[in-house]
Amino acid sequence: MKIPPAKPWFPQEDLTKILADIKSVMESGMLTLHKVTKQFESKYAEYCGTKYAIAVNSGTSALEISLRSLKIESGDEVIVPTNTFIATPNSVIFATGKPVFADIDRKTLCLDPEDLKEHITPKTKGVIIVHIGGLITPNIKAIQEICEDHSLFLIEDAAHAQGSEFNGKKAGTFGVMAGFSFYPTKVMTSAEGGVITTNVEEYTNFSRTLRDQGKSGFLSGEIVELGYNWRMSEVHAVIALYQLNRLEEFISNREKIAKIYDSELSKIKEITPLEIPKICRSNFYKYIAFIDDSIDKEKFKKGLKENFTVSLSGGVYDIPCHLQPLYKKLYDYSEGMLPVAEKILPKHFCLPVYSDMTEENANYVTNSIRKVIG
Predict the structure, then answer these.
(1) In sequence order, which residues have a C-beta less than 8 Å from that of residue 155 and are 6 or more positions away?
(2) pLDDT single digits (tens) 80-134
(3) Looking at the whole model, is its pTM more than 0.85?
(4) Domains in the chain, start-ordered, CATH in brackets?
(5) Is the peptide bond before 364 cis (omega within 30 degrees of 0)?
(6) For a tag site, which of 86, 294, 369, 371 has the least CB within 10 Å?
């Protein structure tokens, strides 16, 4: 049995309809920022529980547009957890700000509110919270309060978290703006794409201007802002709509796989899954676990792949951002500065999980782990 690290799922009945709808879009001649995109935006906002959603071409552009909507300026600092994909801090730089890395909570791999407070300076303008692996940290309220107390904006990097919840409230509703990704590995995909959610009309209008080259309107030749081509095409919006309609089903299937992993891994003393608090609903974009110091992680991964054709999913993340060569060079970060991330991240790994994974697949993975560990 071959187990891939991740894969998108398009049920056959959806594929037939997707292809028919794409044909209709192509025949219409209206290939971007038209009725399908508007329909997707309306449905995504309704799903999340926000007033507005703005479809864009990636999660990365969703973050940069959000930061620019909040008017950060050169020299402004934005605090970012060191455990995130490089697009998060890069978006701060592209928006003319400076990313400042803070450490993580070892129980969640998300931003540590106490370390967040230590990094606030008079130059701090805002905070980006990252929902790692699909988990909204149970410290989200504490982080919101810190931001309110210091008059800082809070943006959600919800690239991993379509449909994730904390206390019944969905990702995309905890910050003033949020950015989601629909990259092919995500729980739902549009092949490439992203979306911004917000309740603020001003930020919505500005975001829509920026995503379309800074024009005052779709058919206008008047340029009012320094924008870019960050549009989602109608073809991508078609795919996104069908995936959104399946999102709850996808998450439910992933939850079933996670329960199997929880049960079986509890019998393997060398593996400890990341605990999901009961108040949280993870979409299980990633199933995160930690390996004992007695096991060589690279040999473990190699053994699974070569001997059992089980490919582990990509980590979140193996190298904290402050130790990436780019950021060591730009801002003189070095080892020892954010010790929790440096200690815990090398021990984590992510089991394969995808939306049409079967119980048989999951049991094969855990049985393979037993055999590799010995």
Answers:
(1) 63, 66, 67, 70, 126, 127, 128, 129, 175, 176, 177, 178, 179
(2) 999 999 999 999 999 999 999 999 999 999 999 999 999 999 999 999 999 999 9
(3) yes
(4) 12-243 (3.40.640.10), 247-373 (3.90.1150.10)
(5) no
(6) 294
